[in-house]
Amino acid sequence: MPVGTYRLLTWEAQVSDEQGRLWTVKGGQPGGLDISVSTTASTELNLLSKLHTEVKVQKQGTGFYFKCSIGTESGGDLLSLMANDGVSLPAPRLKIVNSKGHVLGFPDLLPSFGPHWNYIWQPAMHSSVPFRVIAEVRANPLKIADGKATEFSFR
Question: Is the distance from CB of 69 to CB of 75 less than 8 angstroms?
Fold first, then answer.
């Protein structure tokens, strides 16, 4: 590539999992990713390194809205993750725990666009105790790490 600064808006890669299944992965991030190309140094793109789950929580009425996605180290999201034989990545499993570490539930996420999942959770009772939610990856063709726990409460 000629020397200069480029903005990568979206990207696509094909990778094989441990069973030899070929996966097509598409990704990007808001505003793009700036890449500098020079004659004095090589430019390394690690677009598929350190993938992890991310959960965002919003209060909705008397419940909570969870949005789960697969994020990249550079701050982008995977836009599509599909095996070439038509199999898609199963939804991560949400694990909701209270401040004492007791598991309150494993709600099933509903698919959204691409490798994004949504769920609305209605707790059995109101509590001022903070909760934590984490998305656990079930099938893992790209060594996706479970994300950090996201804390939320009724306040």
Answer: no
In this structure, which amino acid lies at residue 21?
A: R
| Cα separation, 115 vs 76, whole angstroms | 12
Number of other CB atoms surrounding residue 98 within 10 Å: 14
What secondary structure does DSSP assign to 53-114, as a single string? EEEEEEEETTEEEEEEEEE-TTS-EEEEEEETTSPBPPPPEEEEEETT--EEE-PPPEE-SS
pTM of the model: 0.71
For the chain, the structural domain boundaries read: 4-152
Return the structure tokens found at 143: 């060594």
Average pLDDT score over residue span 15-32: 83
